[in-house]
Specification:
Hypothetical Protein Mth938, Chain: A, 6-stranded mixed beta sheet, 20% helix
Length: 129
Amino acid sequence: MTEIADGHFEQQSPIDAYGNGGFRFAEMSHVGSLLCLPTGMHKWHGVTSFQYVANNLDQIWQSADDIDVFLLGTGDDIVFVDEDIRQQFRDRKIILEPMSTGAAVRTYNILLGEKRAVAAGLISVERAK
């Protein structure tokens, strides 16, 4: 299985598996958190827990016109999202749906299969649930 060498795979892809600190998709593996955007699958630099998310939104905003729903996989548990972050998504007319990473992976795959304008930010977890 190959790994993403430069932290970017040029198309959105369903996620085949998650856990052990990473994700598998498109016959590749990725260790760490992951951004699934219309521009492809990207390493989400520096995001190891939810507290870092607020400082890592610029890459999402670059694709905002092509996103209707953003699924935020917050790790093992659902985390409260600050109103300021929620408002930033509303200002860009993006529905923000925070949920555990496992739920976000499953929902992302369904919406991507339906050809919806979906994106996801997924914080890596050790165990799939």
